Amino acid sequence: MSARTSPLGSGVAVALSSSFYGFYAHSAFMGALHDAGIFPEQIAGTSAGAFTAAMCGTGLKGRELEEFTVMPGLVRSFMDWGAPFRLPGVLTSFYSSGILSGNNAVKYLRKRLDGARIENFQSPRVQICVTNLTKRESRLITEGDAAEWVIASCSIPGLFCNRIIDGERWCDGGVAVNVPFEHWIDDPSIHTIIIHNIDHIPGTEMVMQWPTISSGFAACHETICKETTELRLRLAREHGKNIIFARTMTAHPKLFPHKQREKLFAAGRATGQEIAAQVVGAIGCETCLPAEVQVCYIDN
Fold first, then answer.
1. Higher pLDDT residue, 284 or 67?
2. Does the pLDDT of residue 53 top 70, yes or no?
3. pLDDT band at 5 (very low <50, low <70, confident <90, very high)
4. Of 82, 96, 133, 203, which sits 20 to 30 A from 122 (CA to CA)?
5. Prediction pTM value
6. Per-residue model confidence (pLDDT) at position 146
């Protein structure tokens, strides 16, 4: 029996949270699960989590995931020459929905993913969470151009322009759903949901620590995500799902986090290894499944 058909991954789904440059910790987390022979049947992600989910969908596994995230040009692909001209419009609210267009990132990722489409991801199946600003609703995307939808899910309002897809406006899935897993609550094929959430150590955020519009917005968003996630976790448990909540804490990545990457990998890998050990040890003993694992990595 191959690793990809191992019982360790049968009936298991993984949800990956949104987080600034979170694909470093997410990729190492998933790589640790793979190294232990755990290949989930489904993966859903928001923002950086969507990026990692798509990588897994293409068949990347183990350390291949980390290697993908450090490819030359990946971070640079998010930048474009039009940013300085959009900045005044964003700051004054006169024009432009974001500073960065995201177009270069779509082209870069489409090339690296060989034009992959989400519906072709079957091992695992992949869902990408985005926000439809035209209809004011969150959506889970299960088909279409993987690169386009991944960047749409990463398009933080204000930082990135809204993506226009099929005539509608789309942006970061984390606006309302920080980590997508509620669609598995009524799925009888999924008995265990592993949630990997990335949090940042207080005081390391890229916002002022005193009251400002940006710090207030960030605090409000974090509060909303926390409350809604707790409600959905409670609902999942009431439906008999095994919930494994894994939390990785790191210092907030810098705008260009090249020097932080290895530490972010280490943090995600440590969480993944702890989760994998617990899952492997719990086979045949559901009561042994961990409720929560937290690995706190402090950047000294």
1. 67
2. yes
3. very low
4. 133
5. 0.89
6. 97
What's the rounded mean pLDDT across residues 69-75?
Answer: 89
Residue type, 156: I
- pLDDT tens-digit profile of 181-214? 999 999 999 998 999 999 888 777 765 666 777 6
Amino acid (one-letter) located at 230 = E
- Could you give the CA distance from residue 39 to residue 60 in angstroms, rounded to a whole number? 11
Is residue 83 exposed (0-12), middle (13-18) or buried (19+ Cβ within 10 Å)? middle
| String of DSSP letters for the chain | --GGG-TTTTTEEEEE---TTTHHHHHHHHHHHHHTT---SEEEEETHHHHHHHHHHTT--THHHHHHHT-TTTTGGG--TTHHHHHHHHHHTSS-SEEE--HHHHHHHHHHTTT-BGGG-BTTEEEEEEEETTTTEEEEE-SSBHHHHHHHHH--BEEEPPEEETTEEEEEGGGT-SS--GGGTT-TT--EEEEEEEEE-TT-SSS-SSS-HHHHHHHHHHHHHHHHHHHHHHHHHHTT-EEEEEEEEEPPPPSS-GGGHHHHHHHHHHHHHHHHHHHHHHTT-GGGS-SEEEEE----
The strand pairing partners of 141, in sequence order, are: 128
What crossing angle do the helices spanning 146-154 and 48-57 adopt, rounded to 10°?
160
